[in-house]
């Protein structure tokens, strides 16, 4: 008797479950309506300055084109919330999100291809920026609207006290890090300063993210293109090994990186720089407003990274405009992308003291110093144009970043590990990841 | 022998035991009532319906869909694809998972044993009625009520890896060199375990305290009269008296141990060199960070099965023992 009841309840429950799991076909061809308001999602803190900036940009777009936009700011679990909308087959029309999300969103079928002929201003966009929006098969699925690159921040007062020049080579860089560590640059008589601030936690792949600035400057690579949209692992090449060894020596041999780096992501690392525990930091321009306030504008300076064994390549990042699949207002989507890339859109995005949506312009005709006279921004813009390099748009970059972060973190945490063996292991893991994503070169 | 007979079902165990007898007795009465009132078997279900409906939508359906997802390549927009047991194969074959499973077991065993030992010691020290004891007990209980994020940040500061770090300066006083704590692959696991014990022990202490009140005071006096030392009284009177408390705590702690996530995520995120990677942090990375929800779901299902098996085994052992 009791058993049959349980079975009944079970059947009922599973019927309910099944009804909730059925899925219809993906709604790709929606009926077009150019009057429909565009729903725009941006990955920034709701109520924060980022949202204000986006609202300003949206208002300028409405004024210029007559389309209507509704802005929604989401920060926590942005990707999860997007997945939920995907499950309802009702995506927002436009998403402003990190450039590295392209592969993941594209492979999930969330994006529609962008016809560059319809985006006139795309011709004025920096080359590597435009390329960052291409998927593995070379089709355009995103357009950058804001860029960042890494530069070297140095404690100016420390450098001047020790009578050093800004580093021109990796040797200078290492020497300065050493001097900051051993020569008591803050003059408090205590041995409590370190040369380089480095977030080397595995969380969200920070270690790999930070190390890419050094790896690429040495001519090394995480994975390297082998033509036809195929890739192969590259962490055991001579250049990569050299870069790892050099970076590892900073931590293991010279001990110039702040202690505890291997469990630190950016917030605690920023604090070491602010608190006068570290003297150099390789970061993007978004930290300038913060450090101006906490440390003081006169205490530190912004210079390009010194040339490594190959060149001065640094990591370029930024935000992209993604046009989502299934929109009923594709004309409006195109118009927004076009406006965001235009000189007017870029300038609007750069205005303001903190609430700017555009860090560095991607439009070649825009001179940053017209909007922001502070020469440090000019330095950043030049670095981006000359040496900025994006992570490749493979279907899913996150596993590559995470796996390499694990390896870099391991090598920095455990100085007894053998570099060669660990990197060989890493290459094998990377090969598996590439194979799983279907882009491994045979 | 009289000890065994005097062994009363201690507080927490009394719950299920009486409920069980209650149910059989009530069942008999119910059947008689059932005959008298003819039907109405659904009346209790009606009362339970609101709760069951909530459970259904917020617990059981998500659980079942996680189970389905574990057999799928999850792509909400394009439609999920069935891939059979591929996700399970991916999880089980990855070296990372096996390592993480081992770390989880080590951490669970260490934290469970440590918290129980420390909790029992604290409970024995703080047993009694004194007014001041209440204050001390509340103070000792604090780690449990402090949010784990705060706890992790505090311990991160205490674990600062240079000689002027808080714990390191204490170690320095007794002549030990500075330890890397969470930053050194050799000591990271022990450091996380220590944090977990610090946090878990007061909780265990509270349950032990509740259990201790049910130990017959007369037994202590009898043992004392028979010439038992303090240690013998603890070992031969208190510990057997707390047997059922131990098994409850063991189940609770083991489940908590297997699902350990927050402290690891906040202190090391599985690093350095993967030395503290546990199953939950791995599932988080696979499922949410890399957006491979199917693989993440498979890992979660495996973890659920492990927890289930463990609970059932402990339960069966207990039942056999009580027979």
Write the layout of secondary structure elements.
The complex is a heterodimer of chains A (442) and B (323).
Chain A: H1 2-21, E1 38-43, H2 49-65, E2 69-74, H3 78-87, E3 94-98, H4 102-107, H5 127-131, E4 143-149, E5 151-155, H6 156-161, H7 170-182, E6 194-197, H8 206-217, E7 223-225, E8 231-233, H9 238-252, H10 266-274, E9 278-283, H11 288-294, E10 300-303, E11 314-323, H12 330-341, H13 343-350, H14 368-371, H15 375-387, E12 388-389, H16 397-413, H17 419-436
Parallel strand pairs in A: 1-2, 1-3, 6-9, 11-12
Antiparallel strand pairs in A: 3-11, 4-11, 5-9, 5-10, 7-8
Helix pairs in contact in A: 2-12, 8-9, 8-16, 9-16, 16-17
Chain B: H1 2-6, H2 11-37, H3 43-69, E1 72-73, E2 81-82, H4 86-93, H5 95-125, H6 131-145, H7 148-158, H8 166-173, H9 188-212, H10 217-225, H11 230-241, H12 243-258, H13 262-267, H14 279-289, H15 293-322
Antiparallel strand pairs in B: 1-2
Helix pairs in contact in B: 4-15, 5-9, 5-12, 6-9, 9-12, 10-11, 12-15, 14-15
